[in-house]
Amino acid sequence: MSPRTGRPIVGNPKTYEVKARIDEETHKELEEYCKKNSVTKTEVVRIGLKKVLNKK
């Protein structure tokens, strides 16, 4: 029998989802930042939260 398929278990699973509403200008700036820096919107939010919460 083959091993289980699917996503592998990670050390720190991301189990919570956060949603936010932003205006059109902020969305455009976010899109441009993501393209320029080759990051996802999720990564930008995580980085921002860590900065606000004084974590590294």
From TrEMBL:
Biological process terms in GO annotation: regulation of DNA-templated transcription
InterPro entries assigned to the protein according to its UniProt record, in alphabetical order: Arc_rbn_hlx_hlx (IPR013321), Ribbon_hlx_hlx (IPR010985)
Name this polypeptide is given: CopG family transcriptional regulator
